[in-house]
Structures
1.
Amino acid sequence: MPGWARRLRAAAAGSAPASWVRRSLSVRIAVSMTAAAAVILVLFAAVTSAQLRSSVFENRRDIILDDASLRFSTAQSAFDQSTASTTDQVQEAAREVIETARGSAAGAGAESVLLIRPPDSPDEFRINEIGSAAMRAVVTDDLREDVRSGDHAYWQSVRVPGDTDGEGEPGIAVGMMVSLPRAGDYEMYIVYSLQSEQTVIDMVMRVLGLGALPIIIALPTGVFWVLYHLLRPVRQTARAASELADGDLDTRVDAQGDDEMAQLGQAFNNMASSLQNKIAEYDELSRLQQRFVSDVSHELRTPLTTIRMAEDVIWEDRGSFGPATKRSAELLHEQVDRFESMLADLLEISRYDAQSALLDAESADLRAVVGKVVDANDELAATLGVEVRVEEPDQRCAAEVDVRRIERVLRNLLVNAVEHADGLPVVITVAASDTDVAVRVRDHGVGMSEQTIAHVFDRFFRADPARTRTTGGTGLGLSIAREDVALHHGVLEAWGELGVGSSFLVVVPRAAGDEVASRPLALWEEEA
Ligand code: ADP
């Protein structure tokens, strides 16, 4: 099945006609053009029919009026020459004249000839009216009044009974007064049928209708077909654009020719190529940057080891120094510590960049890991006057984790929380489900803005670089934590509100290699 047919079928099966029309430009234009053509054809048919009717009708009416006046004058001469003197003779003469008139007018389409007595006719000499009751009913009172009041022929459009559908045929009734011997004036009417003209008009309209049918059928099909093919490059480009958005940077469209569609394709291809080049440039730049960080940190390791050794000697001997030199030794010790930890962070980041970080998983109780991290940072918490509370379940919260990495994650979260706690308590909550274990570190200090939350895991990000820090301060801690948690197939999330506090949640699967399947803890809970 060709592509267009498959699309049509899928569209027809999958959605209501309205959405089908909405989603396909080809269908929409085909439908609108057909609707416009149908309106034009209907108008054209109405105007043609009206014009045809009036010209055919006028032509025929003139012929009928000429014929009728001939019949009236012939009838009048026949009456004038009649020698009838009794009622029966006048009746017979009238019958003959009407019969003759009917015979001669039949050629012009006369259906019937009537002789009607006017209401004011004198009673003494009366003859019977001639003509069927059905035909008499065709002659209206208005026409009769006109005929009686004038001395020439009058006409009126009428419906002549006789056809099968009961509606009657179109026709013309023409009437004039005739003077009968002794009986006085009588109304004479000739009823002509226009059925043959009507048949011709009906046939012309049918032919027109049949002529319009192929237009109504062929137009939408043709327009749809042309547009479908014309819009193929647009569909291709749209498909290529979504492939590009999905990360397939090699995707291109077939853009041949010089028309607007080809220009669209070429423009897309140019855009895709320059995007690909830019991304390649950024990739290269990022690789260079990663290599630079890795090289520099590795290069710094050796001098730092030497500095550390020298500093260790100085540190050991600090008791024998004067106060100023002793203070310098302490400062040196602090900064070398800081230098070492920063270098360790950089080396760790380089390991992740080189994708050489490995998960050294072992079964451990998260409560024990939390306890160890809290103990190790007791001194910092005490210095900053922050109480660290641990809330944990009685049962084991065992999981297969890389203890060194999870310790590092928790240490980072705890140190951050304590440093940003503004002296208020920090609460660490441990929880477990059948499949996962979770630790939440919640502080009630400065909190974080939405913008900070959005970037808090970015490398070298620091919301407030000017803030006095006791440890760390490179802006690498949380980005390493994120990598550490990702290595466990876990989840690390942040919440914060300025002036209210922050909360960080770590969830890792109990079994190494599994994905996180539940949330034993909420990222943040409303507090009373
Ligand atoms: P570092 O602590 O070395 O600056 P991190 O990656 O650990 O780097 O943290 C990045 C930034 O996130 C911090 O500088 C701080 O602005 C913000 N941040 C982290 N934890 C908290 C917290 N508990 N409360 C407020 N801000 C925080």
Note: The chain has a mean pLDDT of 89.
2.
Amino acid sequence: MNAAIKRRAFLAASALLAASTRFPAFAASKVAASEEHERRARGLIAQMSLAEKLGQMTQLAGGRQKALNSRIDDAALDRVRQGRVGSYLHVAGAEPLARLQRVAVEESRLGIPLLFAMDVVHGYRTIMPVPLGMAASFDPELARRAARVAAVEASVSGLHWTFAPMIDIARDARWGRVVEGAGEDPYLGSRMAEAQILGFQTDDLANKDVLLACAKHFGAYGAADGGRDYDRADISNETLHEVYLPPFQAAIAAGSGSFMTAFNELNGVPTTGNADLVRSLLRDQWGYQGLVVSDWNAILELVAHGAASDPVEAAALALRAGVDMDMTSETYADHLEKALAADQTLLPLVDEAVSRILHAKAGLGLFDDPFRFGEAEREKLVLGSQEHRAVAREAATRSIVLLRNEGKFLPLRSDARIALIGALADDASSTIGSWRARGQMDESITLRAALESRTVTYAPGVSPRDPDTSGIAAAVEAARNADVVLLVMGEDFDHSGEARSRSDIGLPGPQKELVDAIRATGKPIVAILMNGRPLALEEVLDGIPAVLETWFLGNESGPAIADVLFGEVSPAGRLPMGMPRRIGQVPQYYAHPPTGRPANPDLSKDSARYHDADIGPLFPFGHGLSYAEFRYSDLSVVPQGKGGSLAWKIAATVTNTSARDAEEVVQLYIRAPLAGLARPVKELRGFARLAIPAGDARRVTFTLDPEHFAVWRGGWQILPGSVEIMVGASSEDIRLHGRLENPEARAVGPGEIAGAARLTTVTVA
Ligand code: NOJ
């Protein structure tokens, strides 16, 4: 990147920050059904047969993830004509979807438009970093812009609805779906949730180029036992409300048009049949008005859970719980009629569900113009445009985390002779992750391709899936002839994702052997990690001076990594989930209460730790290094009267004491009043990614209200007492300590957002 352009972009980023840390709330009036929509929904429902109602409540697969539209045959079209389907997933393309929509609106009795859906998770054609990587940017505004790009591309291709964002908190890296979320922390998770929703939907679904968002998987899918996908979650109500639910509350506040229920069960009740969770909590208490869809086949799976004895009972359970739309199991379509015949009280629930589906369609403007989405001509121009690639590049660069940099080993000298080793260095398919929508691997730039113009010898060595070690000799030879080895290691895209839980989160395949052989050459190594989850690599990384975490960064993967390696950009990503030393430590998370016998380095003392591992993670939550150095100073904690209630302004000065422009992620942690409870030692309640020119300083101010440190005790409670304030560069690198005294004791009102879901206002001067 040209230095002047880089400098301008840097200053623009720093000026924008204050504005970008607060999102406009999604106006309630836009979420609430307009009278016209309501009249239309009622009118249609009055005319609909039961089969047509159940049709609206049915979503079918129009193809497969890798063969979109492949199931739209004559029989499928007939079903659309009969009004016996309300939505399709795994479909795409402006022209094919316009043809399909035409059948629905012109050839079915009531002409109700279809909803077209897809998992557009981290890009549609232009592929961005996987969500865990994007969370590492600690930059919600960037996540919003990345989701915006995805919405522009997908909507121009005829899609209305994405099954994203995935906002499940995850504290067990064995769970393969860690890659899809924002990691272990509910505050960061809430910010990433609302950012993506605003990116997909903007502040009004009537705008152009939007996608209906879907907050998933409600409510504790990420708490699956042992990190096994689909497994039960058995957690306390406190943990549920304080840790797993906040991103969902934030999603409602941001206006998420839909929610998806999780596959798994929570404390003995499968979520898809959980009326306490969906109907009582989500709808009645939180006032959520949007559409609720099941996960794939999950209504029928209520039988496998043992919660329903047959599909008829399963259909009734899901409907009673508040699930409006059945994704693919056809249990509503095939069995709800029988359930209704046995229990007339279900009938109004069918009308409610249909009404919410019709409202979603109306909110997207589909009754006014069913062909609003999908523009064949623009599709050609927009998909993968230069403008979108620029966002992908920025996102990739900002998601990289420098985990270790002993002796300022990085950045590399531009004339260094490099051995690039590891099959992942040239694995274009892995750069685009597992939810690749219509991403093309030949549009991705690998690290190998990005380094082509430099003095580089490439040797794949081994691959993560192939037991063959015959390539190690050539890799060792390449290392011997180089000044420095870039050793790319980790997982391929298919080691994480749905149903990709792993019992061992070390390096898959023979990669450890390769690392040992290269280490034995004595050449300095930069470990470049690619993975969809934190890996347990203490032993593997032993003695390696520099370590970069690069996730799966999308189409611009290679150039972004190269920019960081050669110092074009100073890295500023932070871990959204701590990296364990070894597998036996998981689940592990920073926001843990201290226990009565906190972990003690002295093994002769009995304490809460493993005897055979050092204490804590290898790299903690929030950790990430920079090529610059920053000094933190002048913490002030000033109480404010705010509209009659209390608030505190917490300010700190961060000075870039180095000679290079760089960014720093300032993190605010609290410890809530103890009041007889064992509270986590730290909880994130604010952060700001600051661009600070060399030698310059910024003063960052966070505003906290009592609701920010409320605790869940059968309801949100504000407890009086002393709140510890910690400001620092990671959860284990606290630079400034303070305290505030909260005199208030009260229950938080039903309409107020408390805990991690509550946004902390940040200003920067
Ligand atoms: C199952 C996954 O759990 C969910 O996240 C996804 O949206 C659906 N399949 C549809 O692909």
Note: Residues 506 and 536 are 5 Å apart (CA to CA).
3.
Amino acid sequence: MESRASVVHVAAPIRASLARGGAVVALESSVLAQGLAIPHNREAAERMIRGVESSGAEAAITAVVHGVPTVGLAAHDLERFLARDGVRKVSSRDLAWCMTEGADGATTVAATLTLASAAGMEVFATGGIGGVHRDAPFDESADLVELARTPMIVVCAGAKSILDLPATLERLETLGVTVVGYGTRELPGFFTIGTGIPLSASAESPEQIATLWRHHRALGRTSGLLVVQPPPAHSALDHDLVDAATAAALARAAAAGVRGGAVTPFLLAEVERQTNGASVQANLDLLEANAVTAGQIAVAIARAQAGNS
Ligand code: PSU
Ligand code: MN
């Protein structure tokens, strides 16, 4: 049988960096092909890559490229994903089918975890993870179960505000995923700085996350570690504004009968409309901030490992 590593194409520079124990950060592509509209998606890609690099790490976007699971998307392929034309949304269940059809697929957090871990990566930056949807028996993102079985650090601004956040945190606890606040003791609200929901762990530095990760791995834990960082204060949104926008978006989704994988992109676009675009600015800023932090964590882990060997 083909091995997991052999079916995933890892771009040469990323492979070389991993082989010498360098710092690398995975980035998802669904946020580019489904989550953000043109031209914001290009800005997001550029700012995330630069953010990772500003920390001294290398960025690798994951995607399925003409049926090939890929870690380290080439520039000319990225253009097709930014054009969003015929690019499907690929969660973990969709990976093998996307390969079978030879299609282009933009990977969600769940699918990115699968590809990046096959490549031997340990750090991944995104905006917000999926989770348990509100009043929807039963819509829970595959992001949660993949986090439960993939040893990877995921840096995000929490779960998207359109979700049931207390239920999402409870599910993460059940699944054994450690959630650590980065510079905060409460769960961030993605667009908002806080939610009032307390966390059981909080860290202040990349080195502290690296130590936490070392302990996690030493215990033989095969689950992920979710690092949640509040969005930058200058563009974070007000609670009431997000609440009202979300309520309106949920009502429209219900009226339009939106289901399955289309729910998350639909709600994000509606929130953008309801906030007159303010949510996009917040989204871009937090994506970059998360990329910077993930880069710093990857560098701290690489340094600690170099020091130990
Ligand atoms: N957060 C965003 N934009 C996005 C997503 C998250 O700000 O586009 C994407 C991520 O790829 C996440 C996915 O993994 O939405 C979750 O989709 P679902 O709920 O269908 O699993
Ligand atoms: Mn879903």
Note: Residues 28, 30-31, 34-35, 91, 108-110, 127-130, 141-143, 160, 261, 264, 268, 283 surround pseudouridine-5'-monophosphate (ligand 1) (CB under 6 Å).
